[in-house]
Amino acid sequence: MMERFAKLGVGAGKPFHDRELAPETKKAIEEGIAAVWQEDFGGLMKRVNAGEVTSGDVFGTREFLKNNYLYRFGGAKIGLYGNSREEALYPPYFVDAQGEKLDGAKHAYLLRFEKGQLPPAGAFWSFTMYDGPTQYLVANTLNRYLLNSPMLDSFQYGADGSLTFYVQKDSPGADREANWLPAPDGLFYLVMRIYLPKPEVLNGTWKQPLLQRIR
Length: 215
Prior knowledge:
The chain contains six helices and nine strands. The chain is of the alpha+beta class. It folds into two domains: 2-65, no CATH class; 86-213, Jelly Rolls (Sandwich).
């Protein structure tokens, strides 16, 4: 790989200036970068959204990832410095149950855990909101950026023991605000974090619930 990079003037301790490249070479690099974003990374995200690739596949040691540079790139873009699968898994929510991008300006959503089906964590779990364009936390009137297992006693539960989170821009009503995760007025995504995941998470027996659109 380093021998191939050297043909473009890329090497350890060497500054890189694309202005020194021939026009056709620079054009080829730009087209290659665009193709990676659209085809390779775009294809990877489709597999992530389908549950075919998990955070456990894209985070880990050099020995674990070997030369899978697409997974290494994807892991850095989606969640830089993520832990290996034995320490944490990060089930993402980039799309809803219909496979469409999450948009607080258009829809409200809910995430329902049936009784006994909360994320199986040996340590703790969390469910965090991020603004789509910036990837930052979302400012809101509650100053609430996540819902997590240390908050379990503060949530309201269904008569059947289920737990429902409301993910939306506007309040779902005073009686439901304990379970409300405020969304921005636009695109967003969510990440669940399961620290010290139990075997049923690692072997795929436990499945993350889908984010359902309610309007």
